[in-house]
Specification:
Pfam family, one: Methyltransf_11
Oligomer: single chain
Number of helices: 6
Protein name: Methyltransferase type 11 domain-containing protein
GO biological process, one term: methylation
Distance between the termini: 50 Å
Strand order of the largest sheet: 5-4-3-6
Number of strands: 6
CATH architecture: 3-Layer(aba) Sandwich
Strand content: 5-15%
Radius of gyration: 16 Å
Low-confidence stretches: 1-7, 153-158
Structural class: alpha/beta
Family: Belongs to the methyltransferase superfamily.
Helix content: 25-40%
Keywords: Methyltransferase, Transferase
CATH topology: Rossmann fold
Length: about 160
């Protein structure tokens, strides 16, 4: 993708991610690693046995595994790349606390409204802003994510 005289990666395009994960299957954490994020997650993301956390654009980051190691029991991960999802499903087949699903964050109709206690995004919104129709894609993502976050934590007190 070219913007003016600057060439940027096609981060907003699914084919970019399939190719990236096929060529470089090793774990990669965008921006920050879990130890830097854990104080914020402990403050804002419930870790009870009843809570469900959604990680959008999970890639092959260690974030979800480290969350489970830290006491989170139900971490659902979605990514648009079938390559990375297949790899992560194989890698964590013996970790029932981790679920990996190929899904576009702009269309999460497989989930029921209010399915999650928290949604974590470390870079998906930025990636969508690099693709075609970036504003529409960003709005679609935020609207979809908003539909699936619980508005109350009453169920945690049961």
């Amino acid at each position: 993708m070219t913007m003016g005289t600057t060439t940027t990666q096609a981060y907003g395009e699914p084919a970019y991610w399939d190719n990236r994960y096929a060529l470089d299957p090793g774990p990669f954490d965008w921006y920050q690693k879990y130890p830097s994020l854990s104080p914020l997650l402990h403050l804002y993301v419930p870790s009870s046995s009843m809570s469900q956390t959604l990680v959008v654009g999970c890639g092959n980051a260690a974030l979800s595994e480290e969350m489970v190691n830290d006491g989170y029991n139900n971490v659902i991960n979605i990514d648009i790349s079938s390559v990375v999802i297949e790899n992560m499903q194989k890698k964590y087949r013996d970790r029932p606390e981790l679920t990996y699903i190929k899904m576009d964050v702009r269309d999460m109709n497989e989930f029921q409204s209010g399915s999650f206690d928290a949604v974590i995004d470390k870079g998906t919104l930025d990636s969508l802003m690099c693709g075609t129709n970036s504003q529409q894609n960003a709005v679609a993502m935020l609207q979809e994510v908003g539909r699936y976050v619980q508005t109350s934590n009453d169920h945690l007190n049961k």
